[in-house]
Specification:
103 residues; 0% strand; mainly alpha; elongated; 83% helix
């Protein structure tokens, strides 16, 4: 049941992907899912996804809450990226001031 849901999502990704090498990998993964392979096992066949991510997918699949696991990590990584960008942005005004003062 879950594999079918993720298979549909992967099908949409295949149709909207403009990078041929990734599209081929998506199609191969979709084929494995349609043949009954677990979602995480189908993804691991390409060795493109980090092991930590595959472990998270397996954990989510085992609890039938993969959507919630993906959402949690998406929010977590987005917040971490936003923090780093804000930190970088905070360096720009003082740096410009130092450069302005030097000339």
């Amino acid at each position: 049941m879950q594999g079918h849901h993720y298979g549909k999502s992967l099908q949409v990704a295949c149709q909207s992907n403009y990078q041929p090498h990734l599209q081929k990998k998506f199609e191969e993964t979709l084929y494995r899912i349609e043949k009954g392979c677990a979602f995480s096992d189908a993804l691991s066949a390409h060795r493109q996804i980090p092991q930590l991510s595959l472990d998270m997918i397996r954990a989510g699949n085992s609890q039938t809450s993969l959507d919630k696991v993906f959402l949690f990590y998406q929010v977590l990584f987005h917040d971490a990226l936003e923090h780093k960008l804000n930190l970088l942005r905070s360096y720009i005004p003082p740096l410009l001031f130092v450069l302005w003062a030097a000339f």
